From TrEMBL:
Annotated ranges, domain Tyrosine--tRNA ligase SYY-like C-terminal: 328-403
Span(s) of short sequence motif 'HIGH' region: 40-49
Family note: Belongs to the class-I aminoacyl-tRNA synthetase family. TyrS type 1 subfamily.
Residues reported in the UniProt entry to bind L-tyrosine: Y35, Y169, Q173
UniProt-recorded name of the protein: Tyrosine--tRNA ligase
Locus of motif 'KMSKS' region: 229-233
Catalytically driven reaction(s): tRNA(Tyr) + L-tyrosine + ATP = L-tyrosyl-tRNA(Tyr) + AMP + diphosphate + H(+)
Binding-site list for ATP: K232
Keyword Ligase: yes
GO-annotated molecular function: tyrosine-tRNA ligase activity
The protein's role, per its UniProt record: Catalyzes the attachment of tyrosine to tRNA(Tyr) in a two-step reaction: tyrosine is first activated by ATP to form Tyr-AMP and then transferred to the acceptor end of tRNA(Tyr).
Organism phylogeny: Bacteria, Fusobacteriati, Fusobacteriota, Fusobacteriia, Fusobacteriales
């Protein structure tokens, strides 16, 4: 398949689009400049952004030019889409720091050399706007009645109201598309399906202001079999930054997915041929573990590189396979010899492995805590020297969560 449209459709990326036949024709005959926006609300991208990066990567591999738009300006307002509360306001310094971190991560997935892709920040044109001029020029093109019917505003309206600050977000995003169209010849916006209303606003604005045709295409959101967004862990988001989510934890997340949730990420988050994706997705019973191993390895390789993927795979197989307990490449904490005599549960709370001692008590009562594969039956168990084998002690929570503790 040479047409990226067919590739994206076959892999399950495309959810909605403004002009199906025109887009299909355009992508097969021309080199299209398109954009995806990323608001720098954190100093790392997470797995929700990763699907957008893969969307972008497929497009680039077929000769189209991506613009990664960092929302340094819109981040000062906050996107109300899919939210029931208002986003926390961020300072200029935090936004600037987040932008620089995200730029580095994007370069792993997208080739920015020789103008093959652009990385721009909407703060460059939004921050210098004159409010009266903007409202007269751009605000006059928007119908309030239509805006209020948009899904991205509905939940905010139903849960305590929508601030006028957030109400401006759609105008800003629509204006971004207009600016990118004028400056770079960008004719298409891609994004998550929760952005549909904002994307339509941009297409309409280009038509009204410049009498040109813009296009929009949304991507399926990564959801589990129950319809909830995938990529949430006990600690929060599944981050692409190895300092926030270690490659091992990242690998284990995909390795431990429920059987029913394996097919979609195989298609959306790997570059495996679809024949192989379909073969793996059709496996049943114990054989589905093969698909989970392939998924975990492939996704970790794309995000963290082959070396880290290999380490995570070896650690996982050693811990959960038939072999003995291999303590390498597992999340590790360092302690001093002052730890001797301290309670196991107290240490786990200190290290952030448990939120409270009460949580530890429940874990012990449910036979869910083990040290070096030996069940902990006493909540008050203290740490002794002999628990450290070759200078390391392994804490196991539940069936699959391991943490290694070593003496400095």
């Amino acid at each position: 398949m040479s047409n990226v449209f067919e590739v994206l459709k076959d892999r399950g990326y495309i959810k909605q689009m403004t002009h199906e036949e025109e887009i299909k024709d355009l992508l097969s005959k021309e080199k299209v400049t398109f954009y995806i926006g990323f608001d720098p609300t954190a100093d790392s991208l997470h797995v929700g952004h990763f699907i957008a990066m893969m969307f972008m990567s497929h497009m680039q591999q077929h000769g189209h030019r991506p613009i990664a738009l960092i929302g340094g300006g819109t981040a000062q307002i906050g996107d109300p889409s899919g939210r029931t509360d208002m986003r926390q306001m961020m300072t200029d310094e935090i936004i600037a720091h987040n932008v620089s971190c995200i730029k580095k991560q994007m370069e792993k997935f997208i080739d920015f050399s020789d103008d093959k892709a652009l990385l721009v920040n909407n703060a460059d044109w939004l921050r210098g706007l004159n409010y009266i001029d903007f409202i007269r020029d751009i605000g006059s093109q928007f119908s309030v009645n239509r805006m209020l019917s948009a899904d991205c505003f509905k939940s905010r309206m139903e849960n305590g109201g929508l601030s006028f600050l957030e109400f401006n977000y759609m105008l800003m995003q629509g204006y971004d598309f207009l600016v990118l169209n004028r400056k770079f010849g960008c004719t298409m916006q891609l994004g998550g399906d929760d952005q549909w209303s904002n994307m339509i606003a941009g297409v309409d604005l280009i038509r009204k202001k410049d009498r040109k045709q813009g296009y929009a295409m949304t991507c399926t959101l990564l959801t589990n079999s129950e319809g909830n967004k995938m990529g949430k862990t006990a600690k929060g988001a599944l981050w692409l930054d190895p300092e926030k989510t270690s490659p091992y934890e990242f690998y284990q997340y995909w390795r431990n997915l429920p059987d029913a949730d394996v097919a979609q990420p195989l298609a959306l988050l790997t570059f495996l041929p679809m024949d192989e994706v379909r073969r793996l997705s059709a496996l049943e019973g114990a054989e589905i573990n093969e698909a989970k191993k392939v998924l975990a390895y492939e996704v970790t390789k794309i995000v963290h590189g082959e070396e880290e993927a290999e380490k995570a795979k070896q650690a996982s197989e050693a811990l959960f396979g038939q072999g003995g307990l291999d303590l390498t490449n597992v999340p590790t904490s360092e302690v001093t010899e002052d730890v001797f005599g301290k309670g196991v549960v107290d240490l786990m709370v200190e290290l952030g492995l448990l939120k409270t001692k009460s949580e530890g008590r429940r874990l012990v009562q449910q036979n869910g805590l083990a040290i070096n594969d030996e069940k902990v039956t006493d909540f008050a168990m203290e740490i002794t020297k002999d628990l450290f084998i070759d200078g390391a002690m392994m804490i196991k929570q539940g069936k699959k969560k391991y943490n290694r503790v070593v003496i400095k």
